[in-house]
Amino acid sequence: MTDAEALADRLQSGELRLYELDDHTDPETAATARRLYVQRETGATLDTVGEYSFDADTAEPNIENMIGGAQLPMGVAGPVPIDGSGADGEYFLPLATTEGALLASVNRGLSAIRASGGATARVTDTGMTRAPVFQVPGVAEAETVIEWVDDNTETLREAAESTTSHGELLEIDTYVVGDNVFLRFIYDTKDAMGMNMATIATREASEIVEAETPARLVALSGNLCSDKKPAAINAIEGRGRSVTADVVIDRELVEERLKTTPEAMAEGNTRKNLIGSAKAASLGFNAHAANTVAAAFLATGQDAAQVVEGANAITTMEAREDGLYASLSFASLEVGTVGGGTGLDTQQEALELLCLHGGGNPAGANADGLAEVIAVGALAGELSLVAAFCSRHLSSAHEELGR
Question: One of 303, 318, 345, 349 is an active-site residue; which one?
Answer without folding.
Answer: 303
